[in-house]
Amino acid sequence: MARTILAVCSKGKSEMFTPHQSTYFAHWLTQSGKIENQVSRAMASARVDMNPHQIDAACFALKSPLEQGVLLADEVGLGKTIEASLVMAQKWAENKRNILLIVPASLRKQWSQELGDKFELPSVIIDGKVAASLKKEGKINPFDQNGQIVICSYEYAALQRDYVRLVSWNLVVFDEAHKLRNLYQTNGSKRAKALVEATEFAESRVLLSATPIQNNLLELYGLSQVIDPHFFGDEKSFRALYVNRQRDEKALEDLKRRIRPLCHRTLRRQVQEEGGINFTNRYSITQDFTPLPEEWELYQKLSHYLQQPDNEAINPRARHLVSMGLRKILASSSFAVADTLRGMIDRLEQQQWLDEQALSDIEEIDDWAESENRGDEESNDKVGNDEPVRSPSKLSQEIAQLSEFFDLAKNIASNAKGQALLAVLEKALTMTERLGGQRKAVVFTESCRTQQYLQELLETGGYAGRTVLLNGSNNDPHSKEIYQAWLEEHKGSARISGSKAADMKAALVDQFRSNNADILISTEAGGEGINLQFCSVLINYDLPWNPQKVEQRIGRVHRYGQKNDVVVVNFVNRKNPADRRVFQLLDEKLRLFEGVFGASDEVLGAIEGSIDIERRIYEIYQKCRTDQEIEYQFDQLQRSLEETLAARETAAREALLNNFDRDVVSALKTRRDQSNDFLQEYEQVLMDLARAELPDATFNTNHFYLKNQRYDLSWPLAEQNDSEFFRLQATEHYLAWDLVRRAKARNLVPAHLVFHYDQLQGQYVALREYLGHSGTLSAFEVRFTYNKGRTRNTRLVVLAQTDDGHRLALENADHLMSVPAREEPLSDAIPEELFAEWQAQVVEETEAETEAELDQYLEQESEKLERWAQDRRKALMATVDELDEQIRAYKKEARQLASTAEKIQAKKELRKLERKRDDALAEYHQSKKAIEQEEDRLLDEVSEKLELTCEIKTLFTARWTLTH
């Protein structure tokens, strides 16, 4: 049914539809057929403006019911959350509602809100506290939820894998799925292996990651194993086929072709070229400051102390961690330094080492420590396991030193950078206001104590009552007050998840969004996983050394959904050459602060995989004593960075993900046109259903009134008018669903339908030739079922012919049903066999189309399994070939031996090698047989899923007449 509305007209007459047409509309709205239309239908019910690349990604994820999953790898900022939500909405519409969403802990509430607010999909966040509460109610397995999407963290799902396994999941979604990419390693992440084991029987998995490959191609192999263990052979064959042949064009093309069904990636430049998203710009403001003399004295003294290699106070096993943390605190504020030094002195006086526990001011310290434990094993081994021996006299000297630093820090009443913040804040707010944004700013600091200082500074500097704190705990009275008010406001609603940490963050972000606050002061931990598109000023009060963290911060505001250009403010200490060079590196070399996109995923991934910038910068601060040394070392770092990026740009082109040899921009334009056409048609049919079922309603073009309640077809208008959004939404308790159920349940008897062409809103030109004609029609539904009953496709068909036997094209018969009509009594019965032959022909043609689609699925699955078996056989034969090569080399060496004894010994060794080769060959033949049997079994399983059944349901028959 493709409506071509050539001209909208108003005849001044009321459009009326019959119960037969209403039933037709209800079945049309709920039929399942082309996946593109199904996804567009799910899109139509969402409260979000979608772009074609997101619909394209969702269609890709849903394209084959036989696939075990896909990797959605769109570049950062393109809305992968919406893509995955659309997939979940479609599964929900198919009544496949056992859905598990595994995400970083900090993103749980954000996901829950997105699903609820934009897609009206109900969800529940499961953690230890919620599970304990459910257990008291008698619910042993917290993951077994009726009618709710289950959201949990990676850590909790891995910990509770036995419970996860007990649920028959229709869909499992992994956000930030690159956390699973080292699955292939023998000593890979235990958590990743536990999650794959827990979800191995899921019908489908969707992995979301903007950076699936950061270090090498084996990470792609690891992610493929999460989705489908039969996608590639084993690690050895993958390494031989692709990793060791990365510069081989044929190997690259082969891998591209193989992963095409597995991986979908769209780039920001492609979306921008298509015109889907007009990405906003980043503008940078650099605010210089010069530390006060007492601040500079504190910096120099503490920095010199940290440069000493034999400090007694710091635990040698945590020296790097403590020193780096103290340097971050030192660069933040004197108030943070004073608090930290007080805690350090207390610990030392109690004979405790200074380790990460002394740096509680930095909320991320536990993450740093975990990273150190993973990456610094060699240095730990050098230190040894014995408790280091300390010199009491030297320790006393250091305590005295730290006490001197503490006295100096606590007597500093003002910080130059804080005063610089007051100066630049008004400038940034004025700039964003000029660019069309709100006068709101988010200020990031790495220190909790600095966060308190900044709030006090701003509250007394012109922003009294206008600030909000966001950190990992939010135990301050003002945050608690906001939280309690938020709980009261949303009492009994789905906004409250039950997780205090998630709800606290939601409450504080809502407070910042409202007119009650202008400035959000956030630590790194507080800023994880929040969307602040309504704000367009970001201030890096403390500038991280890690470019990934800088980009993540900016990404809180400069992301999909941001309507305004973004202003990024950075501070530069002009008295400190190292600080100047850090800023220069991030600004000029990585271009993080200006332009449309910031640093690309490939650039950031290359740095993370090849250069530990944070450690290199730390070492410069630690080791360099003069300005000249600092300049030289930063020059070296910059050179390393340029070499890495130059090499990685070449590697990125070969890394497969950016080009699948398809005209992406053209494909997205086509997708946009198709979606818009379907959406227009869908809205018209939905409104026609309302007209048919609600005779007492008052209708306009895109809305209607019923019992003083307004219903809008457009979600922005629904929000603007505080009206009901008239759509077939996920939760089936709204008016539209009531109308569908009522119309589909109606028992219809044959009737005479008189269609009034002059009451049509628009024109169907092809119907004009039938004006004044009469005939008969039959509406029926064809349902195809396969995939062991899990997949059902339906198609609604109307057959219509004139009394002289002329058959209307199927499209014209559909259009006829949309012409306003009245019902008259039927004078003569309609013969049951009238449409039998034609119906059988249409069903046969439709079945042939469906079987052709299934044949494509079969071909794709067969090819995948053939390649899997081939990979496995090649890997086994490679061992035989390696031993043959060793035997040939050994024979050549043996011929050069002089003595008989050496030759005899050589022959014995040769026999051992030959026996080993023969054993490997025997294993090859035995394993080859097992592989072939497994391939046969999997193909039988695929064939079983493709067994097709067909049902036909006649909805009604009628006489028809088309009048002017």
Automatic annotation (TrEMBL):
Residues 840-941 form a coiled coil. SMART domains: DEXDc, HELICc. Residues 368-394 are annotated as: Disordered. It comes from the Bacteria. It holds the Pfam family SNF2-rel_dom. Residues 424-638 form the Helicase C-terminal domain. Residues 61-230 form the Helicase ATP-binding domain. The keyword Hydrolase applies. Keywords: ATP-binding, Coiled coil, Helicase, Hydrolase, Nucleotide-binding. InterPro entries: DEXDc_RapA (IPR057342), Helicase_ATP-bd (IPR014001), Helicase_C-like (IPR001650), P-loop_NTPase (IPR027417), SNF2-like_sf (IPR038718), SNF2/RAD54-like_C (IPR049730), SNF2_N (IPR000330). SUPFAM superfamilies: P-loop containing nucleoside triphosphate hydrolases (SSF52540). This is Helicase.
